[in-house]
Design a protein that fits this description.
heterodimer; A: Rossmann fold; 2 domains; six-stranded mixed sheet; about 10% strand; B: alpha+beta; SH3 type barrels; six-stranded antiparallel sheet; 2 helices
Chain lengths: ~600, ~80
Amino acid sequence: MKFPCFGCHKTESCNGCHVKCGEVDSKPQKILLVGNPNVGKSAVFSRLTGVHAISSNFPGTTISFTQGNLRHEGQNYILIDVPGTYTLNPTNEAEEVAKRIIMGDSDIVVIVLDAGALERNLYLALQVLELGGKAIVALNMVDEARHKGIEIDIKALEEALGVPVVPTVALAGRGIKELVSRLKEAKKSHIKPQSDEDRWKTIGNIVMKVQKAHHRHHTAKDRLEDITINPLWGVLVGVAVIATSFFAIRRIGEGIINYILDPFFSSFVLPLLENISKSMNQEGIIHSLLLGSLINGSLDFEQSFGLFTTGIYVPIVMVLPYIVAFYTVLSLLEDSGYLPRLAVLFDSLMHRVGLHGFAIVPNLLGLGCNVPGVLATRVLESPRERFIASTLISIAIPCTSLQAMIFGALGGFGGKYVVIVYGSLAVTWIILGRLLNILLPGYSPELIIEIPPYRLPSLRGIGLKLWFRVKGFLFEAIPLVMFGVLLVNLLYISGAMNLISNFLAPFFNTVLGLPASTAGPIILGLLRKDVAVGMLLPLNLTSQEMVISVVMLSMTFPCIATFIVLFKELGFKKMMLSLSIMLVTAILSGATLRLLFLLA
Amino acid sequence: MSAKLHLLKNGQKAKIVSLPPGLCGRRIEALGLRPGKIIEKVSGMPFRGPITISLDGRQIAIGHGMSERIIIEPLDKKGEKL
């Protein structure tokens, strides 16, 4: 794998062009950050480069590489945060990526070790050192190891490995300066390639020489760690954590909407737009494109459907607060180290749908946005699991944008209808998962996962991560929503929407019991789900029609961004299979709901 | 006397005797769980849920099916052979 030049950003034809800028007199050096999952590589990376890489307290947060730059004493470095791997004999896609990068060319390898689990960490370290490149070791989390009664003799470790060793606490930024200043001391190790058997022997000898472990009594934290994976208490705590999370997300989201953003938009933005509307005589094509149509004689943020009314109100007021709320709560769960425990609790359930417990993590991420959810399936071992997980996520896991709109569209009819939508999605997730598990050939591997110790999430870490994710939403979602609103208006004005609706009317009327006007929104769900649900608002649907439309919309075509990652992650054939399953599932669910409503 | 990992009682110690062959064994070994290591069972989930063990002060959860294929030698509280 090649990486672009620091100066000209070309991958192939660069001939040291960065010299031209006059500041740098040598080629930038490429540094790889490698190590086991969850040893803090991403935290080291963020500290070194200032580029924020998402770090969490569970194995497998980094699933593809992140790149950043560092300058020290006139030397430029390109840093690559390699996904965590236990070994150079990969067992899943993320480790495969790691192996390809490590085996490719680089100038220096920074091996990040978890001081609290030296023995296991040394296996990969030796494999990397045996490749014969220049290396330096960052012995991370030395504070945590010390609390556990583990002391490591740095000098002895340097001697044993034959490369410099720098103790660090990356989360707090300690030792990072020393690591940077000693980068130039990175060197080749004396350790030669050896068999697996011999490598473990070497590791045994090194650990015996450099590590002293004192016995230490059970602390309150240990007891908490034990309780949360205890069969009875663990499940109770799990239920409490999930319930609290949903409650908190709802309250935070609603709070931001009701007390901050909605009042601001109603009392400042609306009058401004009303004035503009009046100056345009409240009519004309430009008026309908920019501000939309008048509802009961005035502009309405939810229903007017103009670029600057609904187009900004939906992403900023209706969706953004829930994005902030969801990711605040998720970040807390991620950084505390609770998620792997959830994987243990859910393992039995996940096995019924052909996955193992750790697949709960991609599914949870999917509740924020399906894109990172589908990407996170890379930590699953087999293509079969990845297909099942991606398909389930894109069909039955509603992202935060969609959920915000579900509440927006159905909240007015009563909580009961919101529950029906969530219930339908949950039932579909289980039935579809069962079916896929039975129908797809092969079997799914078992769970095996390291459970990290609990850590108190840092405000800085949570804040950075939240900002990173919210920024992603602002830059990617808002332009798409505005484009969607524009497209919808153009389709209505040109009459194309009528054609589509009339064409699909018979099917929608008879099978789903929906008015033809809902066809447009459901098809436009392909672009963005929140826009599509927004389009349902002005249609004056009954509560039951709204429920069916929303469920159909949630399940059918993934939004454009999810569509692209599905294609990238699954390939064309499997994506088409996944999309066919999606279409059938959505129609069946819509028709079933209608039947149930007729019977009820 | 050897047994399988899932049969251990909570809090009981054991020495790993052998791992299943192939990829499955490699995944276990990568986490530092190798023949000869001493472990302690922490807990097991019902309905064939995962077994959590403690190894060198770190906890590892292992799927039930996988744990049935790990051969161990149970030890007493002091870590002596039974």
